[in-house]
Design a protein that fits this description.
The chain is mainly alpha-helical and about 300 residues long. The protein is built from 8 helices and 4 strands. Keywords: Membrane, Transmembrane, Transmembrane helix.
Length: about 300
């Protein structure tokens, strides 16, 4: 349902953009970006594949697989794994593209770093989501408890003022969190590598610096948005799991009565569960928009650009 909502929002945004472009006078001058078409294409296809993978896993986990007593950590790590794979491919495409010797390479006038072609807005949003996922995972892991096999998959919910043992529903514990943190680290390394290579490679020629800079900013933005999108999806799944695991509030024992069941962080879990659908919609939305934008850019190869590259 969240994917359908996100798709509807994307359709409205594209419709509004189409009308806005039609109202503009004139046309945009030809833009040479063929050198970066490969990276654009990978970012576009990869964003779409990430959405499909996560949506497919959601359907399979909910309606097909029997996951009783199974630690399905891959569901929460799947977006991060997809993001890491996509960004690794982008990095490889960039590295291979560097073998092409520019016609008149431009020496940088200042030191370029991985931050050179990424907007502060994108970086701030991405960093905030990463911090939220990491802190949520660590918090949940520290409040989890092990089962008989040593897997940290339970949370203890006490029944105060009684001799009843704590309730132990399944929870987003270390058994889920550690794989998620590992996949997050791999994705961050791949994103940093892609941004670094995007920044340090030479421009083709002095007269194309401005247009190539625009393309490199688009690539940096795509990388940041993929990280933000997949992190939002993983965070949404984690918050939903935490809310479901700590949702027990009453315990009824036949012949004895009803008792209150208390988890000290239940209020935060409720808030997280309410935020989870919004994060999921945001993740789908940003990935779909990134896919459309990057694929459209990679396809916009004008005859003038091809001719210029052939010289």
């Amino acid at each position: 349902m969240n994917l359908i909502l996100a798709t509807g929002i994307v359709a409205l945004i594209l419709l509004a953009r189409t009308r806005h472009v039609e109202e503009k006078d004139g046309s945009t001058p030809p833009h040479l970006h063929s050198r970066y078409a490969g990276e654009m294409r990978v970012l576009g296809i990869g964003s779409l594949v990430t959405v499909v993978v996560y949506a497919t896993l959601s359907i399979l986990q909910g309606f097909v697989f029997d996951l009783v007593n199974v630690v399905s950590w891959w569901y929460y790590a799947a977006p991060l794994i997809s993001g890491a794979v996509v960004l690794t491919v982008v990095m490889l495409v960039m590295a291979l593209g560097q073998r092409e010797i520019p016609r008149r390479p431009v020496l940088p006038t200042s030191r370029r770093t991985w931050l050179s072609f990424i907007r502060i807005r994108e970086l701030t949003t991405t960093a905030l989501l990463v911090v939220l996922l990491v802190s949520t995972t660590i918090f949940a892991g520290m409040n989890s408890s092990p089962d008989q096999e040593g897997r940290f998959v339970y949370v203890n919910i006490s029944v105060p003022n009684t001799d009843i043992a704590p309730l132990r529903p399944w929870f987003y514990g270390w058994a889920y969190g550690i794989p998620v943190l590992i996949c997050m680290a791999l994705m961050i390394v791949a994103a940093w590598g892609a941004l670094h290579i995007n920044a340090v490679r030479s421009f083709t020629s002095p007269d194309l610096v401005a247009s190539e800079r625009t393309d490199r900013i688009a690539i940096g933005t795509g990388v940041a948005r993929i990280v933000a999108g997949v992190t939002a999806l993983s965070l949404a799944g984690a918050l939903r799991f935490i809310a479901d695991g700590s949702a027990i509030k009453k315990l009824t024992i036949e012949g004895q009565g009803t008792y209150d069941a208390v988890w000290r962080y239940a209020e935060f879990a409720v808030i997280g569960g309410a935020i989870a659908p919004c994060l999921e919609i945001f993740g789908f939305l940003i990935l779909l928009l990134t896919s459309i934008a990057r694929l459209k850019t990679s396809a916009r190869r004008t005859p003038a650009a091809r001719t210029e590259l052939a010289r």
